[in-house]
Design goal:
The complex is a heterodimer of chains A (457) and B (647). In chain A, 30% of the residues lie in helices and 20% in strands. By secondary structure, chain A is an alpha/beta fold. Chain B is an alpha+beta fold and 647 residues long. The chains are: A alpha/beta (457), B alpha+beta (647).
Chain lengths: 457, 647
């Protein structure tokens, strides 16, 4: 308990119950009939810019055939076809990450799943550059939700001593990391070791919540066979899976922007598993385990689906919706935004489809209890931001720094008055970011004007 | 399926504002229940008020809020059920309950109603309702009540006047002598066994309820803990500077337990709407309130400073919010410095107050008064010196017995006094004899006012002298006094003994004996010597004088009357008999009203003679005074032995 600072996390009551819906159930594989067509977005999932398209409509593609490349910080990240078949054409459908319509290639699945090697197989004997290069060639992105290209974290870093394997999975409902870590523990260890190798790190901390007893039992015996690997049990609180909080909890280190500042690289557990799998074959990740769950679905289960499958198809496989009005989320209920429709393709970083009944709760006046301030992981004062936003007090809003908000939703979760606190903070964040840009531009203009004229002509 | 687009997260805590408020209400109900139990133990009239007052306040609050919400409800064409729902979620009744608990038990109903209307209506609804009020509605109500209805706020349903213990201690130099100034023990103070505002006295229960509410996350601990800690530390230093030594711990505890400090800390400072939202802000808020409480309590003329301090800090809340804006992990240095500076102010304040405000010697040049329905007594007690382990105190007590509707003895006594005054001129003083032929033991006394509208009858018991069939009335019934507006010279009395042995008295103009103004004065002085070793009152020299002057001086010695810890039955009998001689009380029996004043045996004539009731009350009042003197003397003696006070 802190005197002045925020608590920074909260145990979500009932979280175990929501996980229980799928955690111990059999993992299903999506039958072929539900993935006759898969969709590959032709936009960058980060900013929504068009990618360099390499394949053309009508091309026959295999699993791993290059569709296009996207550019991130000057690095080219390949985008591959997740199935084998023919590119039937283009279609404008909803992009789950951007929340708006985007151009997609429609690939007709021939269910042969012919693989193309995108890189040479590698192992623990390979050197760091080979592994990082393979990460880039594999187009491996963080599978925990953000979809950040993995190799960028490793490229050119120095003084990394710790790799953190994030298997915390603090969102309610989600159980994919949990199941993957139990079922593919060998790959997890191998992937973590490969990552250590790539970063020249001395240790890798495999982190998961202390209430995940089965994960601990599955990992505890074999972990000693891999030098440098340690299991770290973290408290069952939200947002424990947030990088900064996790890094502080397991290593005691803090950083401002990137974990590398604290000599740490953080990767999702499933990313490590997929890296290990690809290292043996040189094939890309073509399918993804999703937790398909929520009170709005007839069945709840973890399903392995080809990347690019439509949400509507997966919902159909699960028996369809059971509610008339609700939200469909690509991910857990805390951070995700409701989809406009379910005509939307699964991306590699998606880890769940959650269908929930629309919350019907009485919104009351803010009683200024400060619960949001008491729990904000980034030490914001959401209630003050809300007041400043409502009064359009830009200076006060800027002083409250809503830009550091990570959108974890804890402020709305704890709000006893059912106020959409998080929404206010997000709006204020957008306003402040705009204002900052504006002010910077104005300053630059001023500086320009103040510059002494003349000089070399 | 329809796709909802409402903003996330879609997973919410079950905890609602209604939950918080209901848990708060449960906490308040516990205090309310304690108050009901305590006041029923005092008297049923008080107990009923303790039940009724919060209900009045809550109903008023709900009605006021409904009236404020009515226009909007009509405009939006919503029905009565919606209105009720809105009122329920506006939580005015919580404010009403808190207000009732911080008002004294015998506050008149209309004072409560008006205070609630202003507190909830003006301080809350006019500002925009729940969540928008700047000031704590209950505190505003309390202050309005104190300002406008001070004489309608009584701490007991049956006693018209009386100060709170906090005020009493304030006027006695904030010394640690609880027993002396407040007439309660430390344990009484902690458990609320004394009169104060309805809910503020139960320190221990408040503390427990507060801790439970903190654990239940209904209230935040920062403001109350820093509030209490600041007061505790500052008063501890006060105690040290005041020379209490180790007892400073107790001194500081007493200061924290006094008045509304604990109630304010648990239920008013933690009101989320009117306190800062940030954790650092709440720390500053609590400390600021503590400083202002101390300023008002020790330096201003209002010992009950808690309400004002909270109102003041409510005013500062937006400023505090503005001052601590930013990320809560930043500015730790600023927070620590601010806290330290406020703490330092508290310590310096404690030093200053300790050296200037605590009056160590206020103790035995002491004046004490108590009042109840029977009258009012004031005592001055002076330490008269010590010799061979025997301490002497000079005590003088004056008082009057008021007339009231229950016992109109005052009328009768006044009439009788009038009769005496009339006879005094032509008859031998001080004895009057009425010789009667009847062998009964009573004599009817009747008087008529000049317009003969009202006839008051009283029965006067007379001392029977069996040998010559005479009835004796001793004249010097101390304190027979005529109302001030009728002087004995101007008033015309006629008294005659009728054939049926009635005394018929006619009184001239303007006699107001029917009113409560009629009163009988008396005064008494005595010296009490106490031998602590043998626990005996060695000698008590008692002199009683009637206000009329010269009706009788008498001496009474209580030779070696034991006490433990109060005067014995024997002593009580002696005193009463001494007194009763004047009015001839024949069959004294215990009178229960005075048990709470620790008079072991108070006595009264069982015969329905209002005349004697007055005399007995007077005797009882004096008896009580004597017991108090012994009590003080013991306490003072102990304090001296323990080195708590110096002579």
């Amino acid at each position: 308990m802190s005197l002045f600072k925020s608590e920074g996390c909260k145990h979500l009551t009932g979280i175990n119950d929501t996980k229980h819906l799928t955690s111990e159930k059999e993992i299903l594989t999506l039958p072929d009939e539900y993935s006759k067509e898969v969709y590959v977005p032709l936009v960058d999932p980060g900013k929504g810019l068009p990618i360099n398209v390499e394949a053309k409509v009508g091309d026959h593609v295999k699993v791993g055939t290059l569709i296009g490349t996207r550019n991130m910080f000057g690095n080219l990240i390949p985008i591959y076809s997740p199935v084998s078949g023919v590119i039937k054409g283009e279609e404008n459908i909803l992009h789950g990450g951007l929340g708006r319509m985007a151009k997609h290639y429609v690939i007709e699945n021939d269910f042969k799943y012919e693989n193309v090697k995108v890189c040479e197989p590698f192992s623990l004997e390979s050197d760091a550059d080979t592994i990082i290069d393979a990460m880039q060639k594999l187009g491996l992105v963080g599978l925990g939700g953000a979809g950040f290209p993995t190799f960028i974290k490793y490229k050119g870093v120095k003084d990394i001593d710790t790799i953190i394997i994030n298997g915390v999975e603090c969102e309610p409902f989600l159980t994919t990391d949990y199941n993957a870590m139990i079922k593919e523990s060998e790959e997890l260890f191998l992937g973590a070791s490969l990552m250590m190798k790539a970063a020249h790190a001395q240790r890798a901390l495999i982190c998961f919540k202390q209430n995940k007893v089965r994960v601990y039992e599955a990992l505890k015996d074999k972990v000693h066979e891999y030098p440098g690997l340690e299991l770290k049990l973290v408290p069952d609180v939200y947002p424990m899976g947030w990088e900064k909080l996790l890094c502080k909890t397991v290593t005691g280190r803090t950083y401002e922007k990137l974990p590398a500042e604290a000599h740490v690289i953080i990767n999702n557990a499933q990313t490590a598993i997929e890296l290990a799998k690809s290292s043996k074959t040189g094939f890309i990740t073509r399918s993804k385990m999703l937790t398909v769950t929520g009170e709005g679905l007839k069945e709840n289960a973890n399903v392995i689906v080809p990347i690019g499958t439509k949400v509507s198809e997966i919902v159909r496989f699960m028996g369809g919706y059971t509610i008339d009005e609700g939200v469909v989320l690509l991910g857990g209920p805390m951070c995700s935004r409701g989809l406009m429709n379910d005509n939307c393709a699964i991306l590699p970083q998606n880890d769940a489809i959650t269908v929930l009944r629309k919350l019907k709760r009485r919104t009351q006046q803010c009683l200024r209890c400060g619960a949001c301030t008491d729990h904000c992981p980034t030490n914001l004062q959401p209630v003050e931001i809300k007041i400043a936003y409502e009064h359009k007090d830009m200076d006060r809003m800027m002083a409250l720094k809503p830009t550091v908000c990570i959108g974890c939703g804890l402020c709305s979760y704890v709000c006893p008055s059912q106020i959409e606190v998080n929404d206010f903070v997000k709006k204020a964040k957008a306003l402040v970011m705009m204002e900052e840009t504006k002010r910077k531009a104005a300053e630059a203009k001023k500086a320009e004007a103040a510059k002494p004229q003349g000089g070399k002509q | 399926m329809k796709f909802g687009m409402n903003p996330g997260p879609y997973y919410r805590s079950n905890r609602s504002t209604t939950h918080i408020m209901m848990e708060l209400m449960i906490g308040l109900a516990v205090i309310w229940l304690s108050a009901i139990v305590f006041y029923f133990m005092q008297s049923s009239a008080n107990g009923v008020l303790a039940i009724v007052n919060p209900i009045i306040a809550m109903v008023t609050a709900v009605v006021v809020e409904a009236l404020f919400m009515l226009p909007k409800t009509i405009k939006e064409k919503r029905n009565f059920k919606d209105l009720l729902d809105d009122v329920f979620h506006s939580y005015g009744y919580v404010s009403g309950m808190i207000l009732a608990l911080i008002l004294p038990v015998a506050t008149s109903w209309y004072a409560i109603v008006v205070s609630t209307i202003i507190g909830v209506g003006v301080a809350k609804m006019l500002f925009g309702g729940f969540g928008h009020n700047i000031f704590n509605p209950a505190i505003v109500g309390r202050i309005i009540c104190q300002t406008c209805f001070l004489d309608k706020m009584a701490y007991d349903a049956e006693i018209t006047t009386g100060a709170t213990i906090t005020t009493a201690m304030g006027s006695n130099g904030w010394s640690l002598d609880l027993l002396n100034t407040g007439h309660i023990s430390f344990i009484d103070l902690l458990f609320g066994n004394y009169r104060g505002a309805l809910g503020e006295t139960f320190t221990i229960i408040l503390l427990i309820v507060g801790i439970v509410l903190v654990i239940r996350k209904v209230i935040d601990w920062r403001a109350p803990v820093f509030y209490l800690a600041t007061i505790y530390v500052a008063t501890f230093i006060m105690g040290l500077c005041g020379g209490y030594g180790v007892d400073s711990f107790e001194y500081a505890l007493v200061q924290v337990a006094l008045g509304g400090v604990m109630f304010g800390a648990v239920f008013c400072l933690t009101d989320p709407v009117t306190s800062p939202t940030s954790r650092a802000g709440r720390v500053f808020f609590g400390m600021g309130a503590a400083l202002i409480t101390m300023l008002i309590r020790y330096c201003a003329s209002a010992p009950e400073g808690v309400a004002y301090s909270i109102l003041f800090m409510n005013l500062f809340t937006p400023l505090i919010d503005l001052a601590v804006k930013g990320l809560s992990k930043e500015n730790t240095r600023r927070n620590i410095i601010t806290t330290s500076v406020m703490g330092a102010v508290a310590i310096v304040g404690g030093l200053y107050l300790g050296f200037t405000k605590i009056d160590k010697m206020g103790f035995f040049n002491y004046e004490y008064s108590f009042a109840d329905k029977t009258g009012e007594f004031t005592a001055t007690i002076n330490y008269a010196g010590e010799k061979d382990g025997i301490e002497s105190y000079d005590v003088s007590v004056t008082g009057y017995v008021a007339t009231n509707t229950e016992h109109n003895f005052g009328d009768v006594r006044t009439v009788f006094a009038g009769a005496l005054a009339k006879y005094e001129n032509g008859t031998e003083y001080p004895n009057y004899q009425f010789v009667v032929n009847d062998n009964g033991t009573s004599l009817d006394l009747t008087y008529e006012k000049d317009d003969a509208e009202q006839i008051i009858e009283g029965v006067l018991k007379l001392k029977t002298d069996n040998t010559n069939d005479t009835y004796t009335i001793v004249d010097s019934v101390s304190g027979y006094y005529l109302p001030t507006d009728v002087s004995t010279e101007e008033a015309v009395y006629s008294l005659e003994i009728a054939d049926d042995y009635s005394i018929i008295l006619t009184m001239a103009d303007g006699h107001t004996s029917q009113d409560n103004n009629s009163m009988s004065y008396a005064s008494m002085s005595f010296t009490i010597d106490i031998d602590y070793e043998n626990k005996v009152v060695v000698a008590t020299h008692l002199k009683s004088t009637g206000a009329g002057g010269g009706y009788g001086d008498a001496m009474l010695d209580f030779e070696n009357t034991p006490y433990a810890p109060y005067l014995s039955d024997e002593a009580a009998m002696k005193l009463l008999n001494f007194y009763a001689t004047y009015v001839n009380i024949t069959t004294p029996v215990p009178f229960s009203t005075y048990e709470k004043y620790n008079t072991q045996t108070a006595l009264i004539d069982t015969v329905n003679s209002d005349l004697h009731v007055g005399a007995t009350y007077t005797a009882n009042g004096f008896m009580y005074m004597m017991n108090r003197v012994i009590e003080y003397a013991q306490y003072y003696h102990q304090s001296l032995s323990a080195g708590k006070v110096v002579r």
